[in-house]
């Protein structure tokens, strides 16, 4: 039933478009076209196909007229008509007052006072301890070996039978700045715990969509240079804090010679991790011109003599994180205080994002 | 059109609240208009500095010469004027206190120096290591620097462990201390003697003993120091009665994270509980029944809950850097103010008067309107209250006092709260 309902909705949209074409047609269409009302399946699918065809025609005509308008505007040297921006969940996001503003002096004062400031001001070099849950195998160790190649100055320690609080104590003594715990379930890494060590917060992420290096086509092998870090879209106060937590895992002085870049891209509260190597290449002018001809743009485009383009090669793992909780202080599930916990009652809107 | 749901906040009655945050800033939040507008931050006192993180606060809430004391992590106590934020005096204990020995409890005595001048106050401080002291301070209005400490009395509350809660009862005769590894002590402040010490609950059926760790405590009634409620780190809320026994009269679990804040209502039996993951609820402590939860997307640990002395409003604040105001009756969110930092404490300044309006009038108006709003729910309690409202204040006061007395008597006889609620009901019906 649900599927049928959806279809009828689509037709409803189509009606609106058809309205522009001809009102006469629309009335005829309307009395015929409620595919959900037709009980004969053959007939129903026939009507459906017909409608779909019509819809495609309308769409094509629209695109054509839009292109024509653009072309004419370019020829006449007028302002091209405005490009329509599609409405997405992100740009219709619910208003959030916690979004960081660049002119907020309290934000910067808070940054100076928080737990990561000594690392981010380069007074301290990050030193990372990576460990696992008690039982792990196959994909877990492979993932850890790749994390070790991504994060400089990271050290893997076997978990053994130590409990996590003891490990935190040990890390404090040995001057580590963060601990990463990879938790596996059914031989598949499924969550990540990042603990900032002396007294910093503990972030618990759900880890999903893990693709290891060997499963990526045409992957590269990373060098041991210090990577550059890209953090995208960490806008709110919570996002800012998470961003700083991630930032404190990496050294703050990237070696640009290595051309390695690590990206944490936040989109709709999912943090996408990618690891690339980039290269700048200069392209010949000829090729660009011929390309232009082929396209038959007719645009009077000024092509630069030498065009530099960046090419990317993906290396290292690829995974997605989602924040479950951010805890004040180091790992303590029983007596810990949370700065932020995901609760089901928060998910009442698809347009509300927390990072 | 995107369907966006906005939280319907009904707005607040006029109030004034002071919030104290992790960077040592004091922010004044006011809702000024009578017709329930959203509260706003109107003033900010102090400079952001991580070493000035507020650890304890206390206020003397009175019409003439109100005072506010603020203890910070650098072991300074500032005495301020809560109206305009002027510093009257600064006391520094930096020489005899180290990093992890902060002032955790602070209380300004309001009643003792009523007859004295405004340039005098006495306060009780308690540090994490258990050093409590009462000192009286004289300060000049002209120069904020000089402050002379008149008399001071210091004693040790505990031998080991860390104190994490310190409360003084309303008559300011007794103080309770408790913390990590410290059972709750009650001290007579007049001659600084320990009058009572709690005992841990017995081992459970599996022989497991949970170590003592009190995180918050509050005295239950206005004029009675004998009953108090304490929250523990292993999410237990316990009711103690000094006159009954040393073990908790009654205890129950609340959710899964440690209890971080407790506040009592003026009616003397309902309490407000806040925990480490941002859940808040009101509980009838006579029966241990959950009256209801305060739900409003609160996601950070609650550090402090305060009941407004007159209006039916409570404020909660915590690590999610929001100040939230709730209606005590309907348990709905009235409004939330984003304050940018982790907030440690909140206090109400109940003597805030709007220009051109009579305070009494507004409060009573709000009360009456709230009654009307609450009436469709039709609880026994609310209707009772309404009666009192109609009958007049005096009778209410008398009846409440007698009720409290009866309650305490009943508890003495009964010893256990479990039967107490039922008994009390019988008594009141008679």
From TrEMBL, chain A:
<feature type="domain" description="Brix">
    <location>
        <begin position="126"/>
        <end position="332"/>
    </location>
</feature>
<dbReference type="GO" id="GO:0030687">
    <property type="term" value="C:preribosome, large subunit precursor"/>
</dbReference>
<dbReference type="InterPro" id="IPR044281">
    <property type="entry name" value="IMP4/RPF1"/>
</dbReference>
<feature type="region of interest" description="Disordered">
    <location>
        <begin position="1"/>
        <end position="66"/>
    </location>
</feature>
<feature type="compositionally biased region" description="Basic and acidic residues">
    <location>
        <begin position="39"/>
        <end position="49"/>
    </location>
</feature>
<protein>
    <recommendedName>
        <fullName>Brix domain-containing protein</fullName>
    </recommendedName>
</protein>
<dbReference type="GO" id="GO:0005730">
    <property type="term" value="C:nucleolus"/>
</dbReference>
<feature type="compositionally biased region" description="Basic residues">
    <location>
        <begin position="50"/>
        <end position="63"/>
    </location>
</feature>
<dbReference type="Pfam" id="PF04427">
    <property type="entry name" value="Brix"/>
</dbReference>
<dbReference type="GO" id="GO:0000470">
    <property type="term" value="P:maturation of LSU-rRNA"/>
</dbReference>
<dbReference type="InterPro" id="IPR007109">
    <property type="entry name" value="Brix"/>
</dbReference>
<feature type="compositionally biased region" description="Acidic residues">
    <location>
        <begin position="11"/>
        <end position="20"/>
    </location>
</feature>
<dbReference type="GO" id="GO:0042134">
    <property type="term" value="F:rRNA primary transcript binding"/>
</dbReference>
<dbReference type="GO" id="GO:0000460">
    <property type="term" value="P:maturation of 5.8S rRNA"/>
</dbReference>
TrEMBL record, chain B:
<dbReference type="InterPro" id="IPR037379">
    <property type="entry name" value="WDR74/Nsa1"/>
</dbReference>
<feature type="region of interest" description="Disordered">
    <location>
        <begin position="375"/>
        <end position="430"/>
    </location>
</feature>
<feature type="compositionally biased region" description="Basic residues">
    <location>
        <begin position="419"/>
        <end position="430"/>
    </location>
</feature>
<dbReference type="GO" id="GO:0042273">
    <property type="term" value="P:ribosomal large subunit biogenesis"/>
</dbReference>
<dbReference type="GO" id="GO:0005730">
    <property type="term" value="C:nucleolus"/>
</dbReference>
<dbReference type="Pfam" id="PF00400">
    <property type="entry name" value="WD40"/>
</dbReference>
<dbReference type="InterPro" id="IPR001680">
    <property type="entry name" value="WD40_rpt"/>
</dbReference>
<dbReference type="InterPro" id="IPR036322">
    <property type="entry name" value="WD40_repeat_dom_sf"/>
</dbReference>
<dbReference type="GO" id="GO:0030687">
    <property type="term" value="C:preribosome, large subunit precursor"/>
</dbReference>
<feature type="compositionally biased region" description="Basic and acidic residues">
    <location>
        <begin position="384"/>
        <end position="394"/>
    </location>
</feature>
<feature type="repeat" description="WD">
    <location>
        <begin position="299"/>
        <end position="336"/>
    </location>
</feature>
<protein>
    <recommendedName>
        <fullName>WD repeat-containing protein 74</fullName>
    </recommendedName>
</protein>
<keyword id="KW-0853">WD repeat</keyword>
<feature type="compositionally biased region" description="Basic and acidic residues">
    <location>
        <begin position="401"/>
        <end position="417"/>
    </location>
</feature>
<dbReference type="InterPro" id="IPR015943">
    <property type="entry name" value="WD40/YVTN_repeat-like_dom_sf"/>
</dbReference>
